[in-house]
Recover the amino acids of this structure.
């Protein structure tokens, strides 16, 4: 998301500052885009205040990865949102945009969705003019869904174990369409203080989506239904056995129920006709996914 948003923001005249956590690995910032870089942990209050100097708009895209349960979302996501929004309120930030997840609910049985709802509350309590965008599953190059599924299929010859019978409904949203909505929202002050649920232009069953990914990634597998508790246990085990597991228990939880919303929100609120999924899956083609899976295991976080 961050790379897509920075690329689109670069078409504006305003300077861009991106917040990065200190790391020994070079950040994958978009080439050819001039950005100011601030280094700080999201949980470092002094570092966040320093990074916020001279900023009039905050776009908060960070959060616990759906593909990892190393971080506790009920601590990390909520505390990071509180620190960022309080600092934004203190320096007089005019706009705050937060990327949340469809299904965010304080009463949710799933920690990562409960955490997003509590993060939304923390932002709103500061009084900063916030726009909250709850999205369905996002897809794009190196994403946590279609790419993760292709990697997992490559690791499992012949069979692929899918959550349940594959009948849950999904509404994939292309990441570049979300980036467009975020940049356009900056010019719409009436969106401050509002929450919107965003999804793509099509509904798919999970089974249909898996078949599309298999076809585009040239990874034909026999789809085998598996009950959620067994799949969750398998994801838990993979996280502990592999340096870079393509899935986590959060990821399995996401596919436990339907993830869809109104088809017309992007058009009615942002005037944007979202892209169809199959038209934007070129990044799945022409790759040796078995090699990609192995290479991922030796990639530094």
């Amino acid at each position: 998301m961050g790379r897509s948003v920075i690329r689109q923001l670069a078409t504006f005249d305003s300077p861009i500052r991106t917040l990065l956590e200190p790391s020994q690995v070079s950040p994958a910032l978009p080439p050819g885009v001039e950005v100011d870089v601030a280094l700080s942990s999201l949980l470092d209050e002094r570092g966040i205040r320093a990074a916020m100097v001279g900023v009039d708009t905050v776009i908060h895209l960070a959060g616990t990865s759906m593909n990892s349960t190393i971080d506790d979302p009920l601590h990390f996501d909520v505390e990071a949102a509180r620190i960022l929004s309080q600092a934004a309120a203190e320096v007089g930030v005019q706009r705050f945009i937060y990327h949340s997840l469809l299904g965010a609910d304080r009463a949710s049985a799933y920690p990562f969705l409960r955490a997003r709802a509590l993060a939304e509350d923390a932002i709103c309590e500061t009084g900063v003019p916030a726009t909250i965008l709850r999205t369905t599953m996002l897809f794009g190059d190196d994403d946590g869904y279609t790419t993760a599924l292709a990697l997992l299929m490559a690791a499992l010859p012949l069979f692929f174990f899918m959550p349940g019978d594959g009948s849950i409904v999904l509404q994939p949203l292309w990441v570049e369409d979300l980036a467009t909505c975020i940049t356009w929202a900056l010019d719409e002050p009436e969106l401050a203080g509002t929450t919107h649920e965003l999804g793509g232009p099509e509904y798919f069953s999970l089974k249909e989506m898996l078949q599309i990914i298999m076809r585009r990634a040239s990874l034909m597998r026999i789809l085998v239904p598996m009950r959620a508790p067994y799949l969750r246990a398998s994801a838990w085990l993979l996280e502990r056995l592999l340096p870079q597991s393509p899935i986590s228990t959060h990821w399995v939880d996401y596919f436990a129920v339907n993830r869809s919303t109104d088809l017309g929100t992007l058009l009615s609120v942002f005037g944007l006709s979202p892209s169809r999924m199959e038209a934007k899956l070129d990044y799945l083609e022409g790759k040796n996914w078995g090699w990609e899976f192995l290479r991922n295991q030796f990639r530094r976080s």
Summary: The mean pLDDT is 90. The chain is about 40% helix and 15% strand. Residues 58 and 96 are 5 Å apart (CA to CA). The radius of gyration is 19 Å.
